[in-house]
């Protein structure tokens, strides 16, 4: 049984079909990438899975349990952590406190949560900024903070929405290495939206391509980057 | 208090010592002003729990004072129930009202300023209801029986005694609220409140049940404020809906935390001790000017206080939007730098 099963997922905004009848599965342990041009419906897809929005149709199952349309906090309880494309730090809390809020999801006490939080911040290379207010962080640091906070909830499945955007190539490589290590060590499964192909190619063993809200291709990174339908949606008709 | 510097600790000890000996060193008038200070610090702390911790703006907090005051006052006046027992009913009714407002606000996603309007609506609704409730005295007011001899001694069960007793009662309430709020802030619920305050969507994404924790904030704040109502009732001994539940009173509750610093623990206390003496002084000055014939006799002194409050809020919002207390802390170096919160 796959960890995540998405079936016939659809969502329209005032007649605009943002996500149209999308189905895919994510197997346990590993990293799956969700790519597509801007406006393809990737983030909407995430919002539907994570409970930030209710789908018009379709089902979402996690380890076989139906979680369709559950509230965001219930989805988190079920075992899905997420980051936001437009980062949403707790502005007036320090870096440590931000991640502590996430860690409290699994920790019995605040002290234990703080210890867990420090561990995840170390992983995301934010240890030297523990007591800075989130509002004062640079964008790449806020992206890292998002990842650390989501990780702290100890999810089975982590949804990462463009966490590499704005990172320098060396920083991207470090993040890639950290995520790979995490998957190998903890058995975590990651579904990520990413435009940085360098990261997609390095991380994922499976890629799903969305365009105009529909799934147009899926397979290994090598497969999808040679799929004419994918090339066409990125480069335009007649480019190949 | 581990985050205080040496000078911060010294200031705290000096302030605590001053508060403890105050009744023995000042006149009864100054003592009455100090009682107002502490009362506003206490209700400010309760109000701050909602806005400063959980990000919920209430401009109807006098409602909870009123409910607490009327509940305990009525039980005492009509059935001789001492306030030591009446406070249970007072707090329960205030909490229930808080739960109703919270449920309506959060279940139907009435956010931000619209939630504030909801709190005003309920406060006004109950005020008008009380004005028409004959058994509670209506507009004629509810009087609590008090005799000359009961103004002496110390009777905590019936909340009757020397003015000094009232001072220590409200001081104890203040201290209790401070300790409670500090503990809450350091606990799971405090972390969740501040997360919801800063970003509800992100809080939900890490598994925080927003509805539940917002309800906790409103109900707890309402209960604490209801307890203040009991004090109010037995300190004033007469209650008029128009005086207890007036929107002016609700705004008064918000002033100390706004001036002192929303979301800080010392802010409401500091704000109350800055604002109250100043507005009392202003009242005295206006009265004096009236006596000297510089200001017309028919000018309402209360108006000067309202003008001063308005001015204070405008100045704070313009120049120190995070409040005076964080600024004072920094200037005087009362708190250690990292994780500076007090």
What are the salient characteristics of this protein?
heterodimer, A: 240 residues, alpha/beta, Rossmann fold, six-stranded mixed beta sheet, four-stranded antiparallel beta sheet, 9 helices, B: 342 residues, mainly alpha, two-stranded antiparallel sheet, two-stranded antiparallel ribbon, 14 helices, 4 strands, globular
Q: Any overview of this molecule?
A:
With 240 residues, chain A is α/β, with parallel strands linked by helices. Chain A folds into two domains: 1-79 and 155-240, Rossmann fold; 89-153. Chain A has helices at 42-50, 72-78, 95-103, 110-123, 139-152, 169-186, 197-203, 221-226, 228-235; strands spanning 4-13, 16-26, 30-35, 57-62, 65-66, 80-82, 157-161, 189-193, 206-211, 214-219. In chain A, α3 (95-103) packs parallel to α5 (139-152) and α6 runs parallel beside α7 (197-203). The radius of gyration of chain A is 18 Å and the shape is globular. The mean pLDDT of chain A is 92. In chain B, the strands form two sheets. Chain B has a two-stranded antiparallel sheet with strand order 1-4. In chain B, strands 2-3 form a two-stranded antiparallel ribbon. Chain B is mainly α. The radius of gyration of chain B is 20 Å and the shape is globular. Chain B has one domain (23-332). In chain B, a hairpin with a 4-residue loop joins β2 (154-155) and β3 (160-161). Chain B has helices at 6-25, 28-54, 62-79, 83-107, 112-131, 163-186, 188-198, 200-205, 210-236, 241-244, 247-260, 267-291, 301-319, 324-332, and strands at 142-143, 154-155, 160-161, 238-239. In chain B, α7 (188-198) packs across α9 and α11 crosses α12 (267-291). Chains A and B meet through α2, α3 and α5 of A and α7 and α8 of B.
